[in-house]
Amino acid sequence: MAARSNEGPAARLATPKARTALSCPACGSADVAQVLGDNGGVTYVCTSCGHSWS
Ligand SMILES: [Zn+2]
């Protein structure tokens, strides 16, 4: 009998981290930081030109 006991639990991480694939609408740079606002909203700030949007 071939006992298949090598199949362990799939413990590998499928999603490393939700990375934001955003680009600044002002300068087109991909150096965009995600900032959480006080109202629960999310604001994006370009670290290249300083442009912020949401
Ligand atoms: Zn920018």
Automatic annotation (TrEMBL):
SUPFAM superfamilies in the record: FdhE-like
Gene3D superfamilies noted in UniProt = FdhE-like domain
Name the domain of life: Bacteria
This chain belongs to the protein called IS1 family transposase
What is the species listed in this Swiss-Prot or TrEMBL entry? Answer: Streptomyces changanensis
Traced from the root, the source organism's taxonomic lineage reads: Bacteria, Bacillati, Actinomycetota, Actinomycetes, Kitasatosporales
